[in-house]
Description:
20 strands; single chain; Cyclic Phosphodiesterase, Chain: A; elongated; alpha+beta; 7-stranded antiparallel sheet; Deoxyribonuclease I, Chain A
Amino acid sequence: AAESVTPSGNLLLWKKRSITCAALYTCVDGQRQRAIVGVLSSRSGGTATTYIVGNVHLPANKGDDLRGDARRRELSAVLGQIQRLVTRSYRNGIPILMGDFNDNEDLIDSRIPMDLWEAVHNQDGDNGCTFDPQSNPRALFTRQQAGSHSEEPKRIDRIIALRPGLTPTTAKLIGKNHPPSDHYGVMVELKGPRGERSTMKIATEENLWSGSALTTPDTLLGLTLSKYPLLPDDVPPKNKTSTLPVPHITLLHGFVEIQSSMDLVKNAVAESLRSAGLTNHDGMPTLTFDHLDVFEHSSSATLICRPRDSDWLRTLYRTLRITFPQCDEQETRHTEGWTPHVSLGNFGTTSAAREFISTLNMSSGTAETLTVQAITIFRRSTVDGKIFAAGVVPFCSQQLTWSNVLKDAGRSQHEGFKGAADVVRFETERACEAAAGSEAKVKVHVYGSHALGASLPGFSDIDTVVNVTSRDKNPAALNFLRRVADFLQARHPTGKFRIREAKSKETRLCILTFRLWPGAPAVDLQVSFRNRSNGVFVNDASRLAFGGVVDTIRLQESIAEEQRKTFSGALRILKFWAHQRQVYGSGYLGGGGW
């Protein structure tokens, strides 16, 4: 455990006779290795108890530089590592956090952990100050070197239990006689658990990590919708210059830093959904929109659409704010607090926005109810400053079992998959627009089982064709798909991308296959080019690529409107049946074929 000793002064020791170490992790923040997490096992009377111990040395203030963000960032990394170990490998382990916090404030949500010093001395008033310039000459010297004249004692070294199961019996300061350090040490004697099995989950029911995570304006959490509300299909939103041209309601803007902790964010958001009672098999939630309004800015205006007040939406927001207490930017930027809305367009003036509203010819009482697709985590791109989807948390269950599938013919699982698929489709369309250039018209079409309402999580992909209408008389599909892949990979560096060729008779088709993040739906993308002057396919490859869309439309039209839900449900059951027997795909019939 010596990797963090130089230059950070952090060493984790244990008695080898009675304790074994299963694993050690150093938590890195940039070039710093100031924290260490160890998995230690103690055996007593035939019963082994596992402790996940995080030992920290958080940055100290330097003059006017208070270093609060640096402390919170490092603490978040340590708690994240502890959470991963507890939730994945050591569910009955006892997590402990200790060390030099260099701050006497509560960096962790005080409802969750147990400060062991306070647990012992909560009645006798002993504040346990570990940094005391009044009694420790070394602490006084440190203060003077830092240019501070304050001699206020502080308790900045702590031992914290992150889960019930430990009982502190004594707690005392050590090193007070002839102090070797400017900090006194803290020693706590504990009674361990007596064989009982813990059923609590750290940072899901308790969300330690999310309560301490550093926020950033470059990340936001939003509800994605199937379309822009109250806009006719032939009227595009006026937001092509927006940093996030996707229909959404922002939940938390100024969300948590997620570069290395996407799984923790998704777990915490999913727990908020469960706490709000929003994960079930009753289908996706809906919102009704009936009110257009204008946000006035100093030199521009934004056209917005507000939903009717919704109990589930308010409950979700309150639960998320409790889970992520630092993410208050969305509330503080508006005088009336959080105001749920969908942005429909940006205008130079307020009057221009209101003029646009008048062109919509909306009658009094016009309303539109839309399905909420998913909760999506967005992040700002370092390439162009625009915001892209980095992960999705579905509302509906993703678990595929016969009991779940037969409960509603797989509708819940399909809707959960569709929520993530629609977000990926938006990302795909943006990449295709960038690859085609501003002069071309681009539309992404979905065909096959997903378009037929039969896609299921775990083994379904999204079959897509991008229709590009341009003046280019000799476009190259391979070059176009390479540009799409480059655009997506720059924003999703952990994604998987592959271009392959398929042959139909004598015609070669290029297909881009990709998955934007772990767990995201896989996409097969082909390109179909049309001549801008007459709308005709420019070659046989374009006509064949678009053939899947034509076949899907013909199949849908062959089924009576009132029978389509039944057809999709039967198709999902057949598809799951085939997958369970390993006869789905791999040269056999696909979803539409079944």
